[in-house]
TrEMBL record:
It comes from Halomicrobium zhouii. PANTHER family: RFBJ PROTEIN, UNDECAPRENYL-PHOSPHATE 4-DEOXY-4-FORMAMIDO-L-ARABINOSE TRANSFERASE-RELATED. GO terms for molecular function: transferase activity. Gene3D superfamilies: Spore Coat Polysaccharide Biosynthesis Protein SpsA, Chain A. This is Glycosyltransferase involved in cell wall bisynthesis.
Length: 233
């Protein structure tokens, strides 16, 4: 059992995930406070719009991904940081940076993972189309049913997680299925997950990287694969 002193002493790393998010970074970055974390690291997937240059000029370290894909960005962020708690954040305008300390506080309260939920009581979203809403509910309900969860948003990537939990679940998803894989493996291994209600504003500039059909199919395939390999083996 961890003491309260251990939780309070936990170092925090914020991993900012970017791919051509100059407009979002320019607007969102000034709202991220240095006192929220011991280190802040950009993991960039090959931006060509000035995102990397702006981040470096603002004094932040930027790591260029060695392999493409959101899942690989998560793992490189894990490998290149040292905090006991890691926050994954995308500065595209859809995620509210002021929720970062709230997520960290929940992990310091004793949870292994805290997810910013767009569909929990008190949450709201300005950017989810009816199709996206339906897909999120379908994936979340399926994950809850197969892995014994009670989540409202198993998909959102804006989350904080203990380093030892992230290392233990040993993800291998390469793309936008990384979030559901993290959620499923954490539930399957008995880690505790909580949610905080968040507001999802509209996206700022750039082009959405998520393809509704392709990534939707990938998410469902990952869910079924995880169930087969963890529950039916």
């Amino acid at each position: 059992m961890y003491s309260i002193f251990v939780f309070l002493a936990m170092d925090v790393s914020i991993v900012i995930l970017t791919l051509n998010e100059y407009e979002g970074v320019k607007e969102i970055l000034p709202r991220i406070q240095d006192e929220w974390a011991n280190e802040i690291l950009f993991v960039d997937g090959g931006s060509t719009d000035g995102t990397v240059e702006f981040a470096r000029e603002s004094g932040y370290q930027v790591v260029q991904q060695s392999k493409p894909g959101r899942g690989n960005a998560f793992r490189e962020g894990l490998a290149k940081t040292s905090g006991d708690i890691i926050v994954f954040f995308s500065p595209d305008g859809n995620e509210v940076p002021e929720d970062i300390p709230k997520l960290v506080d929940r992990v310091k309260d004793g949870y292994d993972m805290a997810i910013a939920s767009r569909f929990a009581s008190g949450a709201e979203t300005d950017d989810a189309t009816p199709l996206h809403w339906f897909g999120n509910r379908l994936f979340t309900v399926t994950i809850n049913s197969l892995f014994g969860g009670s989540l409202m948003d198993a998909v959102n990537g804006f989350r904080a997680i203990r380093r030892d939990c992230m290392e233990s679940i040993d993800t291998d998803a390469d793309h936008f299925d990384i979030e559901v894989q993290m959620t499923m493996r954490a539930l399957n291994d008995g880690y505790s997950i909580c949610e905080i209600p968040t507001h999802e504003p509209e996206r700022i500039g750039g082009e959405p990287e998520l393809s509704t059909f392709i990534d939707g199919m990938r998410l469902m395939r990952t869910i079924l694969r995880e169930y087969h390999t963890t529950k039916l083996r």
